[in-house]
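hey so u asked for the seq, here:
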Amino acid sequence: TPVNMIRVNLLRNQAGSANGDGPLPLVFGTLFQKLTADVRAFATAAVLPGYRFEIPPNSGYCCGIIPFSLDKETWDLISATTPPTDPDMLARYNALPDDFSHDAANNTVTNVGDGKKEGDLYPYFNDPLLPNSGNRGTVDIGFHGNSTQEIKSQITSGVCEVDLSAQGDLYASEDEPLTLNGDTGLSAGFSKELISIIGKPKMVPIFSGTNPLSGNNTDFEIVGWAAIVILEVDLTGDPDYKHIYFQPATVSDECVVVDLEGEITEESSIFAKPVLIE
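ran it, structure tokens below
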């Protein structure tokens, strides 16, 4: 917002200017009795959407994805641009808080509402979407293990080439869901790492359902991706007060593959880095 494209014009046509934009001197123009020429060049760059992620081989790059899945129902509520019409969903929507503001220019968070709904990545008791899973939850992306250190690394550094070396690119949609294996769940063991990324937009997988198993035996059906920013973290003390508050955000990341056919809508939140289109 408010634009996704910029054009730069380079002009050499201002007679008598000392600012570097005077007419271009010609070396051979004297043969034609022309000493200067007015010159103009331009280029256009755009930030375009995409929902597939690739890390080029040997690039050493890491993608800004954190291994926390979020259920589609909650995401649809939080990211809605207008309140839902269903009475039950409207009640849930109205109950969502708005206690924080995110400054995207400086990646800072303040305790003042900004008109955006906020959610909680921490699982709540008897979550109907996860009847037996034990997590909301954390998922294995590329690496199939239960190491807290691996989760810490992906929180702070993102999903790197070594994580995807066996899996290839990451893509998920409702038509082509991706299955990710669950991890052991949210833990105070990586609270410090989550606090370190407060205010920094990240990407998370969105799931529509799980199998009935628990913990790291849970399989998540991933149907999309979302850009979020974490606002506040507290994973200590009474489980009723543990939370990882977040709100929708916008991400521009080098690992995002441009969708040239994709239409930019109000819901678009994941973009590639700027690319020249003209």
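The first helix runs from residue 72 to 79. The longest strand covers residues 219-234.
lmk if thats what u needed
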